[in-house]
Amino acid sequence: MTTSASSDVLDTARRAKAAAAELAPQPSGVRDAALLAIADALRARTGEILTANAADVARARDNGTGEAMIDRLTLTAERVAAIAADVAHVVTLPDPVGEVLRGSTLANGLEIRQIRVPLGVVGIIYEARPNVTVDAAALCLKSGNAVLLRGSGSAYASNTALVGVVRDAIGTAGLPADAVQLVPGESRDSVKELMRARGLVDVLIPRGGASLIRTVVEESTVPVIETGTGNCHVYVDEHADLDMALRVLVNAKASRVSVCNSAETVLVHAAVAGAFLPRALSALAGAGVTVHGDAAWQAAGDAVLPATDEDWAAEYLSLDIAAAVVPDLDAAVAHIRRWSSGHTEAIVTRDQAAARRFVAQVDAAAVMVNASTRFTDGAEFGFGAEIGISTQKLHARGPMGLPELTSTKYVVTGDGHIR
Amino acid sequence: MTTSASSDVLDTARRAKAAAAELAPQPSGVRDAALLAIADALRARTGEILTANAADVARARDNGTGEAMIDRLTLTAERVAAIAADVAHVVTLPDPVGEVLRGSTLANGLEIRQIRVPLGVVGIIYEARPNVTVDAAALCLKSGNAVLLRGSGSAYASNTALVGVVRDAIGTAGLPADAVQLVPGESRDSVKELMRARGLVDVLIPRGGASLIRTVVEESTVPVIETGTGNCHVYVDEHADLDMALRVLVNAKASRVSVCNSAETVLVHAAVAGAFLPRALSALAGAGVTVHGDAAWQAAGDAVLPATDEDWAAEYLSLDIAAAVVPDLDAAVAHIRRWSSGHTEAIVTRDQAAARRFVAQVDAAAVMVNASTRFTDGAEFGFGAEIGISTQKLHARGPMGLPELTSTKYVVTGDGHIR
């Protein structure tokens, strides 16, 4: 393992900036042809990709990596084919670049148009799964951006092989190969260099665990889009259909625990606690979920562990849930305001006024009314693709598709207009 | 002059966050009534505002402040009336909050709407002119945001009086007074506290000189919208109407030199340099402008000073301009790519293909075709109001009106949908 010299990362970023300038004016036909070339090349060169991946997997096994992580790291011919199919799917999505968002002719005859343009150079910092390497490259190319990929050290050989295939393919298709680059080096230093490449990199998108995201947000001078941390709540209102509430709760918590849109806390209105808690405890136990509850939940079930502030704050990503009874909707909102990560919050209610109040007062990227938190997802929302889920308020909030990978430019046309 | 204790600024931010939560669900009628109450109160209490302002002005004179700065600081009954009228004008603008940006019903029956919501707490860091205090407060209230105002120490008494009037007025109108607060303290420390109030403040907008903006961008952990630095270019193409080019150039440079949308560099295609340079030198000299030119410009006029890299980089904000002759459009674009601050770039040409190429390849918030750079302005663009001009690519680019002071929220409604 080598440590990247400072200049390596910056040189990479400089080449990306030059490639972005070349890429931006390319029409969508050229970009789409490059994407199809990538899909073809992935299929044609699956063998060398699998060889590189096998080296990563062997190294991970030698390092005593757990089976779940090994599985995320492992590529097969089938998985490479799926990655290629995903790239081909991106071709079918509408091109965001060039879309006219606003336009008018002013009283003085000046014509103003606000058009979508690529962001420029997008840096993605991510972990484990090598499929993200190709996904991110495809979405950035489709939206006219150059991309700097900084994947996990454990997937370095796989990522090197994949990026090699992608670069060859886009070069053949007439795009600058440097529009897609792996950030050199496997050490943490290369991430630091990337975070300081202001003026060369237009945005950094960290995808991964909460600690990675926090580090990037705090230390980066490059603008950041914060993604993914999800401490999501399900609030069961006084006027909830309790059958529906049970269904939504179990789905939100237990259908897939390792994802950011799974529920981590359930709040129940006191008026229905007596009826709901026993049923919820039974259903959650049936799904293998451990409940960390307040006094009311503890009183309702022997297996309930006592909840502390750490539980209210936790993004478990496991078969655990925090649980509280609240006196009213306002208290539910107050709890969510205090502990939410601003990802997704859900209310189950038949009361229109309660739903309106919850939607208006809860501050999150997505608010669900009588639906599982698990629906906050680019594919579920019909975006066709997703580069991540933003939990910040600037630029993009919620699932980010292709339009969120663009900026805008005002084009003003006159015939010699002066002020 | 007192130095603010750390906790003062954070307490202010905490109160702002609570006020923002109260403010967000208020309908536009309530917010508009509060704005009208502010306008009335400014008119009714002009006397005490002028008394406070007189103290600032006296202190500034004692400190030997220059007349231009004294003028920017000084309020008169007429100026207060103009500020009140501006507030009343904000009432007439469309409310961005609640606008549905996208909406659809998915195949499974889930209804998705993306709606505009306030950002929450907006921090504005600005200099000198006390009218910004009221303008910024009005725009933030109109868009449903709480605002933390951190003006110049030199206007502290004026700002304290103005914010007092605003707070009383909105309190009477039923909004939380803490939706508008002055950041306590006049020292630089209070700016630092504000920049570290991540989680309490949703966005910081620095308005002022390049060094203030650079400091905030580099040191803030709160998300920042970078505003205002303008190293704007006028490119006179081979196929320019030279009369038009002369008119646009002189207007862009000399109509108002202290603003970010004034031109700082002129680039001339070599094919028209012989015809254009003598006329440009004469017109610029007539407007009192000093030219800092390359060899070709120096050869064309005795008064031309030699340009260095510092000139290409300079935002003069004075009666100075950097000037170069370029061999072709590509060289003009390359020069702009290297030195531009990404604010506004202009081309003067009769050639449609050249205009298209310039627009596609220049990376700036606004690109002017046959129009002065001076048009990049919220009022000129018809936005009715402007909180600043963003030179960054995330969230907002170019003049920022009310919609740019909002975020979005997805509201998803089902009838018990699970995945």
Question: What does this molecule look like?
Answer:
Two copies of one chain form a homodimer. By secondary structure, the first copy, chain A, is of the alpha/beta class. The first copy, chain A, folds into two domains: 6-226 and 396-413, Aldehyde Dehydrogenase, Chain A, domain 1 (3-Layer(aba) Sandwich), CATH 3.40.605; 232-377, Aldehyde Dehydrogenase, Chain A, domain 2 (3-Layer(aba) Sandwich). In chain A, 44% of the residues lie in helices and 20% in strands. Chain A has helices at residues 6-23, 28-44, 46-62, 67-73, 77-91, 131-142, 156-172, 188-195, 210-219, 242-254, 270-286, 295-300, 309-313, 329-339, 352-361, and strands at residues 100-105, 111-118, 121-125, 146-150, 180-182, 203-206, 232-236, 263-269, 290-293, 305-306, 320-326, 344-348, 366-371, 388-390, 398-400, 406-417. In chain A, the strands form four sheets. Chain A has a seven-stranded parallel sheet, with helices on both faces. The first copy, chain A, is globular, with a radius of gyration of 24 Å. Residues 1-5 of chain A have low confidence and may be disordered. The interface between A and B is large, with 69 and 69 residues. Strand 16 of chain A pairs parallel with strand 13 (366-371) of chain B, so a sheet runs across the interface.
